[in-house]
Amino acid sequence: MTIEPAYPNKNMYKDPKFWDDEWVNSREDNITRVQLKNQHSSRNLISRLFFYIEMMYRFFSNLWDAKDKKYDYILVSTPPIFIVFSAFIAKFLFMKKTKIILEVRDLWPDSLIGVKIFDYPIIIRFFRYLEKKMYQNADYIIINSIGFREHIERKLKYPKKIIYIPNGPRAHEIVKEKEHQEEFRVVYTGNIGLAQDVEHIKSIAKLLHENNITFHVIGYGVKAKEFQNYIEKNDLHYVHFQPPATRKESLKLIKSCQLGIAFLNDEEVFSTVLPGKIIDYMTCKTPIIAGVKGTAAKIISANQTGFAFNQSDVHAMVEKIIELKQNPQIIEEMGQNCIKTVEKEFLWEKNIHKLLQIIT
Question: pLDDT at position 44, please?
Fold first, then answer.
């Protein structure tokens, strides 16, 4: 059960190329797409609250309609937490023997504060109370970043098993050998939004252009248009901006580049996050130059898959890129480390067994 896809925008999914997973398409009858009238993209507090409340109500209604099926488990993801509470209410009322597997993909409401969507202390306190109850009442908790563990454990009354299942590639997606490229290329893929400082991404683009280094960007998000306009206004012809692409297309572009860029804002909540693009870069044997701290920085440094910098230190990042351009052997060594790290820690076929051990 899920809402209609709307990220980064609903119109994108009118293009059939984004429905390219035949395994999923062949099971469309098993997918319930919940229709919502309110818009989640509004930054108005009241509009967003109505969106969340409607979401909880409609998910609960679908669970009510399916109450006779007697599910053994409900696996529910957050954020937002309102979907989770539709499952808890259903369990309390008519699914008492059903166990709740809570998958935490982001720390909420901390992520709302981090991107400065709104700052209403009374509401934030209420959301924190709901967050604590969510962790305490789940039967199992799955996290996709090891950095979430300590935060969640602080909110539990009693110790509870927390299972780490990171985002990761399928085995067939891992790049063993990269094709030789005459042109030195750097890539950024993913969100250019509230969790990334667009000014720093602009600075990276300008500095790479000034050093005649090709920079490919597949971007989306609320700041993507601003970034695109900046490129055009400043005639940064070494920077190539592309609209959202499929996963296959994105991985193909990453594979053709020597280095990948990653950014997160310098907010404490983001120190717990492991951006999916970092794993995608490693999957494509593409070392990372990242303006990140905390969990992501530790993984990059510990596995020698790239270099992590202070988020604002864009000049140091570009200097490192220029240095590495002259040292392809170092890039090759880090690329090998990327593949070793993915196969050891992030391979989906290995990590999915942690979930199977719960439900079988």
Answer: 64
Mean predicted confidence (pLDDT) in 2-30? 81
Both 200 and 131 in a single domain? no
* Residue 89 pLDDT > 80: yes
Whole-model pTM? Answer: 0.92
Residue 273 and residue 224 in one domain = yes
Contact 253, 216 (CB under 8 A): yes
Task: Note whether residue 116 is domain-resident.
Answer: yes
**What is the residue range of 118's domain?**
2-164
Q: Do β-strands 73-78 and 2-3 pair in parallel, antiparallel, or remain unpaired?
A: unpaired
**Are 14 and 56 in a shared domain?**
yes
Choosing from 148, 164, 180, the residue where a domain stops is 164
CA distance 101 to 287: 34
Q: What is the mean pLDDT of the chain?
A: 90
In contact, 298 and 272? CB cutoff 8 Å: no
pLDDT at 42 over 60: no
Task: Tell me which amino acid residue 115 is.
Answer: V
- Reported residue count of the chain is 360
Residues 353, 330: Cα–Cα separation, whole Å:
34
Beta strands at 140-143 and 99-104: parallel, antiparallel or unpaired? parallel
